Amino acid sequence: MSGILFFAIASLAILIPAWFVASRAFRHQFLSAALLYLCLVLVQMTLIELMLGISNILNLWGILVGAIISGMVLIFAAFRWVASAKLQSGEAHIQPSLEPSINSKGWVFLFLAIALFAIPLSRPLAELLQQIHWVHPLSWDVVSYHLPNVLDYIQTGSFWTIQGFFNQYPAGNEILQIWSFLPFKLDTLLGVTTAILGLGILLVSTLLLRNLLPELSAFEWGICTVFLWAICLLIPPFQDILFDFGRNDITLAFWELVALWTLQQACSKIAHSEKWWLWSGVSLGMAVGTKPIGIFYLVGFIALLLTKVIPAPDRSHPIRSKLFGILPFIFVPSVFLAGFWYIRNLIKLGTLSDKELTTAAAALSIFRSLLNPNFYQLNFPFFFFALSLGMTLFATGLWVRNLPEVSLNFKLLTGFSWIVNIALILTPSGAGYWAGDTPIFLIQIRYGIAMVPTTVLLMLGILNQAWQTFKIRHADFQHRSTTFLAELHQPPRSYSTLRLLGYFNFIGLFLLVSQIATYQPPVGLPGFDSVLFASNVKPSEIYHWVQKNLHHTVIYSVGLRPYGLYGFPFSNQVIYRLGSVDWTYQEGLKTIRDFQPQFIAISRDPFSTTVPKDLAFLFNQPKAFEVVFQDSLAAVFRITKEGKSFGK
Fold first, then answer.
1. For a 10 Å CB count at each end of the chain, is N or C smaller?
2. CB atoms < 10 A from the CB of 500, how many?
3. Phi, psi (5° rounding) for residue 134?
4. DSSP bridge pairs for 602
C-alpha cells in the first residue's frame, strides 16, 4: 500500500468522526464546532502516535490501525454522550438561542473593512502562501534539531530515542509532523500544519472576543473580529511565528488559548460544566506535552482556579469543592497527556532535562536580565512586552475597582495575561539567545506568542467599556447608532454546522491534494546552504551533494544543520553535534565506535567560522578517511575499513 493511501485512510478515519462529533455538540454554533473539530483531530493524532511511540511500533500500519480504532472509540463515546443527554434533559440537545445575523448591506460594510485592512497585509500573506507551497524552513532551530528529532523518531519507530540535540524535550509540534512525514517521506505538509495552527489561534481568539463582548451586535462583533485578526497579523512576532515552520511555540499558544476559552465556558455553564473542565485539562496537557514552558500555564491555571474569581461548585465549601470537584478534571488529563516525556527522561537520563542546556538558557531569562543594561534595547519586542504588561496592569486596576461592567470573562482574560507575562519572564532564553558564546539580547515574544491576541483582546475590552460609557452619556448618539446598526441586521436564521464544516472540509481537501500533487522537495538546504550562521557567506554545495550521492547510509555530522543531510525520502541516518569549534579527534573516534557511521560531514563552526583544530587528523590519514567532497566551508570523508578499525 502506497504512503499516500495510508495517509488518506488514516486521516479520514480520524477526520470523519471528529466532524460528526463536533457538529452534534454544536449544531448551530459554527465557530465552536470548528474549534472542537480541530481539537479532536489534533488530540487523536497525538494520542495515536504517543501510544505507538511508547510501544516502539511507530510505523505506517500502526498509525492506520490506531486511527481506525480511535475513530470508532470517538463515535461510540459521542453516541453515549447523546444518549446520556437525552435521559437527563428529555431531548438529545438543548437548542441554543439563535443570534441575529448580518444582512447583505452589513456584509458590504464588513467586506469594505476587510479590504481596508487587507492592503497592508497583502504582501506578507502572499509570501506566506508561497512559503507554504515551497516549504523552506527558515528557522535555525528547526533545521538544527526540531525536524531532525522528528526523523530520528520515525527511523527508530520509538519515542524512547534520545540521541539528538534538545531531544529530551517533549515532542509537541514534532508529533504533528510525523503524521505526514512518515507516509510521504517528505516535508510536504510542514507549512500546511503551521498555517492550520495559526488559523486555530485566530479562531479561538475570535471566540474569546465573543465571550468578552457579548453585548455587541453581530455587525459590531464582526468589525471587532476584523480588527483583532488584522492587528495580530500586523504584529511582527506573530508574523514570524507563522513563517517558523516546525517550531513548537505556535502549537503551545493554540492550546493555551483553548484552555482559557474552555475555562470561561466552564465558569459560565450551570449544567455539564465538567465537560468544559475536562476540555480545559486536555488543552493544558497538550501544552505541557509540547514544551516545558507549558508547566507555567498549568500551575497558573491551578492558582487561578483557587481564587475567588472562579465560582466553586459548592459555595459552602469552596476550596474543598474546587480541589475535589474541579482540579481532577484539569490535573489528571494534563499528567496523562504530558507525563510520558518527563518519565522517559527520568528513566533514560536520570533527570527531567539536560541541566547543562537549562543552565545556559536560564542565564538569559528576563528575570535574571533585569539588572543588565544590555537588556533595555529599544526595539519592537521590548515595546510590545512593555505594552502587554501595561495593559495587564490597567485591566487589573479596573478589576480591583470592581466596576460593574468588568465581567467574569474580562477578569479571567486578565488573569491569563498575567500567566503569559510571568511565564515569559521566568522562561529560559526569554531575554535573548546565545550566538555561540555571545549573548544576543532580544526578547523572545515567540515563547509567549499567546501574548499577542491576549493583549489585543484586553485593548478591545477596555475600548468597549469606554465606548459603552460614551453611548450612555450621549443618548442622541446612542439612538442614531442603534438605528444604523438595526439596518444592517436580519432576523435570526438556523443553519447546520454539519454542512458548513463539510464545505470547509472540501476546501481543505482540495488545497491538500493540490499541495501534494505539485510539491517538489527542496534541493540542498535553502537559507542555510552557506553553512554558517551569517547569511552573507558564499553557499556550500555540501547539502546538495549529500542528497544526490548518499542514500541509506549513516552520516556523522559536525557543525552542519543535520536536516539537510537526511536526504529525501529521509533515507540517511544522521548522528550530529551542532558546533564544531571544540570538536576533537578523540570524540570522533568514540562516535565511530558507538554508531558505526560510513561518512563524516564536517564544516567550519557556524558561529565563529573557524576550522576545527583536529580536522587535520582526518586530512592527514587519506587511507582511513577518504575525502569525497570538499569546498571552502565543508568536507565529507568516507570512513574506510582502516578508519573504522580506529574506533575499536
1. C
2. 15
3. -85, -25
4. 558, 635
